[in-house]
Amino acid sequence: MTSPWAREREERLAKAASNRRRNKEGGDGVPEARPTVKRSKPVRLTVDMPPPLHRRLKTWTTGYAAEQLDVTSVRSSEVVRSLIDLLTNEQRDSELRELLTAAVLEDLREGQQ
Predict the structure, then answer these.
(1) How many CB atoms lie within 10 A of CB 60?
(2) Which long-range contacts (CB under 8 A, 24 or more apart) does 43-47 make?
(3) One-character DSSP codes across the chain
């Protein structure tokens, strides 16, 4: 008598095998190609940071940035998105991108030591 788990495993394997097609040489099965779809939902990024760094970010977003933009506060996520765009967008100011890239790389190098 086979256990329910063994039966379930065999069924999953049989289903997976039936979903494969044989390659031209008749060798091992190759998974069916799936169409590529663009993401419709944003990707979540979670960042752990030390409390002093978080305090500095909050102070900057709720103090300086909010004052400059004449709003009550600026979301940290908006700042992170903006910084990523400044670092990676070829359409942005290349001199600023180079300065930021150099500063980030220097900071990363110091963190590795």
Answers:
(1) 14
(2) 45/80, 47/80
(3) ---HHHHHHHHHHHHHHHTEEE-TTS-SEEEPP-------SPPP------HHHHHHHHHIIIIIIHHHHTSS---HHHHHHHHHHHHH-TTS-HHHHHHHHHHHHHHHHHHH-
The residue assigned the tokens 């960042």 is 47
pTM for the predicted model, two decimal places: 0.60
Tens of pLDDT, residue by residue over 49-61, are 999 999 999 999 9
pLDDT of 23 strictly over 50: no
Pairing of strands 20-22, 29-31: antiparallel
